[in-house]
Structures are given as C-alpha cells and as structure tokens.
Inverse folding.
C-alpha cells in the first residue's frame, strides 16, 4: 500500500489568467493530432509552392528535348520527372500549387465578403429586407451553378482573375445563411441584452459579443470552403476551361497526367497526391476547428 | 401537403425565369458566334443561316421569342447538330445521364448509410477508424483523379473492365464507382455523426430497455432519425452528381448530357446550352421538392403550411 504524496499547496505565484473562448479553442485545437499535422503539412506545401521554384535550375515553362518524359531522378534534379515536353514536373507542380492555393484563398475571400455582408444585413435589419434577401438566396440555390461557371469562363476568356471571382461569386450562399442565422439568434440572447442593460455602447456590444460569437462558425465554414474552391478550379482546368498553358495549376497537371499515365504515371501521381493532401489538410483543420470552437462540447 | 407542393412549384417560376434570362444574356455577350468554326461558307450563305435562326433580330426580340417558345415547351433547334432539336438531344442524352447519376446516388446512399451506421455502432474501434479513413479518401481524391486511376488499374493493367464507351451494365461499373465515391464518403461521415447522437437519446434507450433485439432497435428506431441529415444532403448530392457527370462522361466517353454541354458552350451552341441549363434547373427544383416531402414523412414534427 503506497501513500501518494500530497503536493505542497503553494499560493499561485502569478495572477490567474482568465481563459477566453479563443485561448480555450486554441488549446483544444492543439490537442487534435490530425489538425496539428494538417497545419504543419499545409504550411510546408505553401512554403514549398512559394519558394521551391526559385531554387530549382529549371523554370516551369522550360522545354527540354533531352529529358522528354524522364523518370523521377535525383541526379538530374528532376525530382518529379518531366512531362512529354521535357518540362520539369517538380517546378510545375510547385508552380501549380501557387495558382491552386491562390485561387482557393482569393475565391474564398470573395465568397466570405459577399456572404457576410449579405447575411448580416438580412439578420440585423430583419423584416421585409430579410425576406427579400433570403428569397434571392433560395432562388439561387436551385441554379445549376456549374453550368454558369462554365459559361462565365467561356465568356470572359479564361483570365485567371475572373475565374477567382466567378468561383467566389457562386459559393457565398451557405455563408450568407450561416451568418444570418448567427446574427439573428445572437441579437436576442440574454448576454447581449445584459450588456445593453448594463449601459455598454452598441459598438462595443458588436465588437465584444456579436462578432466573436459569429466568428466561430464562419471560420469553420471558410476552412471547408477553401478545399471546395480549389477542387472547382481543378475541375474547370481539367475540362480545359481554367488556367491556360504554359501557366499551370494542379487541375491542368492532373489532366495532362491522365493523358500520359500509361507511359509516365509520375505525371499523374505527383500533382494528384499534392491536391489530395491539400484537400485532406483543409478538411481535417476544418473538423478540428469545429470541435475546438463548439462550446457545447466543453 | 399537396398545397405545399403546389406553392413550391409556383415559387419556382422566378427561379426558372432567372436561369433562362441569365443564361440567355451570358451566352450572347460571349465573343464569337455559332458558325465561327464551320468550314468557310460564302458570306451570303452565312447571312442566310443567321437569318434562318433569327440571329439578326435585335437581342430583346430574340429573347422574347425564346421565352415564348420555352413556355410552349420548345427549346428550339440546335445550332450545331443541324438535324436535331435541343429537345431531341436532351431526350437522347438524359436517359444515359439519368441511369449513371441515379445509380451513383443510390449506391452512395446504400453504402454510405450502412458504413456510417456500422462505424457509429463500433465507435472508436479499428472498424470505425478504417471506415472513416476510407470515407475521407473518397472525399479528398477528386473524381477526375479517381476515374483515370480506375481505368489504369482495372481497364489497362488487369483488363477486367472496358476503359470507356457505353453499352451493357459492364460499362457502367467504373463510371458509377468514380461518380459515387465522394458521396459515399460524405454520407458515411454524416450518418456516423448523427447516428452517434441518436444512439444516446432516451427513446433508443427505451427501445433497448424494453428488450427489443439490437437489430430492431437500430433499424426501426435509431436509423429513421439518423437519416434526417442524410436526406437533407440529398439535394446537394444530386447537384454534385450532375456536376460530376459532366467530367465523368467526358473521361469515359459516355453519350450523356454532360458531355454535350461543355462542347456546346465552347461552340456557342446558344440553344443547346440554354436548353440543358434550364432542363437541369427544373430537375434540381423537383429534386429539392421531393427531398422536402420525404423529410416530412421521416420527421412527423414537420408540418407543411
């Protein structure tokens, strides 16, 4: 029988820090292994996409007839091999990563902007305006968007910037609904009322209570929108409607790789793996954030 | 319930109007015309062609004419496939797309729901982790990667299945798998999540406590409630399947509507593009309505008014 030693009681040496919603959420996120691994992986992919092309002796559009469809090989510096034009696939995959990740971020920002403005306006003002705005969202829900995105890319001649905007402009509907729901339920909550009754200024109420409480679901949804947007861009590029040669994105590389897969499977495997890892990371981070930010689970 | 359905259908009219108007003007501001890529024809003949399709009228007149024809169920002639009307092309392609997409959704439901349920019943076990790992793979590997990989392995290396084309059921296996994997993954995750919640509710505990065999408690009591989020995902699932079929039909060379669409948009086949878009708009509206009605059947707390 052993007696557990009771640790001596010491007075807390410093002032006890309050645990805010965010520090709590951050702590819980760090306990989620999948999410942490995903954040690290994603950071590596992003940094590699930005910087790796600078360090390679090859450029993404260098055609080399000495190395046509070469296998992955460390000696020659073609880590991922080359395509049927002799272009270095390592640099092209990293370069494609820049394009795909930028599309993901920019288009998500566009959808965030439209969604938040639309949803919070509807939620705050309420009444007829709310009815009208949400009716428009309902109408747009039944629109077969992929056809409109295809038409938009045909109309605007596949400029990258317009692809960003077109994809963003079709993915804000859920965001608007989420933000509206949040604002509406928050408006009537007791702690908001209490703050009002305690004489807190409206601006402070919005800053201290409304925005932080809205932010959780919005952040979670943003993390889950990014992979969808990247997927949509790849989808368009695969059909030949997205980014144009010699520029490239993961969708273009996958489409080229699918064409070459019998003779040079590496041309499909590397970009497809990068895309899948990236999509997986965003999904795991989104799941992790949802668990971390959900106060019900405490 | 009938009144609810009728109200929803009337409410769909502005949606359709919007779809028609959007697609009409979007196609018309696109540079280039439907006859650009043909053999060089003498200018007189091109003028005749343009006149025959009323493309020389002012835009508003063309728009009104199109609306008028549409109300009577006439999608007009295809500008590219000269001997066919758009209705004929849709009637030819849709049964193919329908069989492909319908089968994919059905399989996604069956496999997804059963996988999710099994994972929920053995929560945090090896089975659960394996099932959810596979589901996540389905979600993160896009169908346009899955499709070439499947053809490479089963079509070229093993030679078990045809790599493309359309004929007997054997031609459907690979496209249906490629099309349904994402939905299987998504539905499995949804079912697992809601099943875990439902299994903790009092009425499931009651069902077990009164001595019902586990199988009956799950299928009769838990599953019905756990299906609610899955049913509400059905609408988006159908839209995702339609989107996916555009690419899957392209990869496998399947003569469905999706494959026409991309070609039609590139060729400025105005009427075909608009026809397909409106047709799918109607389909999505009807599917959403059906989903709402099923939802009401599963959850008696919902009342239509």
């Amino acid at each position: 029988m052993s007696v557990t030693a009771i640790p001596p009681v010491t007075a807390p040496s410093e002032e006890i820090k309050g645990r805010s919603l965010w520090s709590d959420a951050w702590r819980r996120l760090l306990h989620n292994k999948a999410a942490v691994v995903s954040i690290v992986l994603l950071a590596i992919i992003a940094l590699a996409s930005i910087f790796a092309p600078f360090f390679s002796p090859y450029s993404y559009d260098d055609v080399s007839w000495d190395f046509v469809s070469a296998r992955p090989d460390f000696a020659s510096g073609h880590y991922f091999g080359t395509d049927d034009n002799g272009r270095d696939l390592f640099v092209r995959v990293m370069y494609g990563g820049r394009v795909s990740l930028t599309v993901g971020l920019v288009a998500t920002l566009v959808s965030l902007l439209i969604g938040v403005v639309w949803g919070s306006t509807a939620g705050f003002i309420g009444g007829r305006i709310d009815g009208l705005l949400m009716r428009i969202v309902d109408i747009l829900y039944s629109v077969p968007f992929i056809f409109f995105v295809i038409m938009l890319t045909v109309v605007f001649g596949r400029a990258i910037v317009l692809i960003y905007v077109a994809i963003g402009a079709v993915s804000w509907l859920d965001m608007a609904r989420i933000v509206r729901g949040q604002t509406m339920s928050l408006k009537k909550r007791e702690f908001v009322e209490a703050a009002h009754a305690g004489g807190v200024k409206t601006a402070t109420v919005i800053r201290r209570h409304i925005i932080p409480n809205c932010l959780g679901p919005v952040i979670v949804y943003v993390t889950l929108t990014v992979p969808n947007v990247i997927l949509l861009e790849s989808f368009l590029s695969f059909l030949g409607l997205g980014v144009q040669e010699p520029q490239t994105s993961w969708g273009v590389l996958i489409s080229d790789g699918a064409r070459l897969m019998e003779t040079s499977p590496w041309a499909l495997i590397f970009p497809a793996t990068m895309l899948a890892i990236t999509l997986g990371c965003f999904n795991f981070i989104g799941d992790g954030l949802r668990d971390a930010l959900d106060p019900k689970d405490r | 319930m009938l009144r609810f359905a009728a109200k929803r259908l009337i409410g769909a009219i502005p949606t359709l109007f919007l779809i028609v108007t959007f697609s009409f003007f979007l196609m018309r501001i696109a540079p280039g015309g439907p006859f650009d890529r043909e053999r060089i024809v003498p200018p007189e003949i091109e003028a005749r062609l343009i006149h025959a399709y009323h493309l020389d009228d002012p835009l508003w007149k063309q728009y009104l004419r199109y609306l008028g024809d549409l109300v009577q169920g006439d999608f007009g002639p295809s500008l590219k496939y000269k001997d066919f009307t758009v209705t004929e092309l849709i009637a030819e392609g849709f049964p193919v797309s329908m069989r492909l997409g319908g089968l994919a959704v059905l399989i996604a439901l069956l496999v997804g729901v059963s996988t999710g349920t099994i994972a929920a019943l053995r929560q945090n076990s090896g089975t659960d982790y394996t099932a959810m790992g596979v589901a996540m793979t389905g979600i993160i590997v896009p169908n346009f990667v899955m499709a070439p990989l499947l053809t490479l392995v089963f079509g070229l290396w093993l030679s078990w299945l045809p790599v493309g084309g359309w004929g007997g059921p054997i031609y459907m296996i690979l496209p249906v798998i490629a099309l349904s994997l994402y939905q299987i993954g998504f539905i499995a995750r949804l079912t697992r999540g809601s099943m875990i919640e439902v299994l903790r509710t009092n009425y499931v505990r009651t069902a077990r406590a009164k001595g019902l065999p586990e199988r009956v408690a799950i299928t009769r009591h838990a599953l019905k409630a756990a299906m609610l989020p899955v049913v509400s995902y059905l609408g988006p699932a159908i839209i995702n399947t339609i989107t996916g079929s555009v690419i899957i039909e392209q990869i496998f060379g399947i003569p469905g509507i999706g494959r026409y669409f991309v070609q039609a948009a590139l060729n400025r086949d105005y009427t075909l593009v608009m026809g397909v878009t409106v047709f799918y708009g109607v389909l999505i509206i009807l599917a959403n309505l059906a989903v709402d009605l099923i939802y009401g059947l599963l959850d008696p707390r919902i009342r239509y008014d």
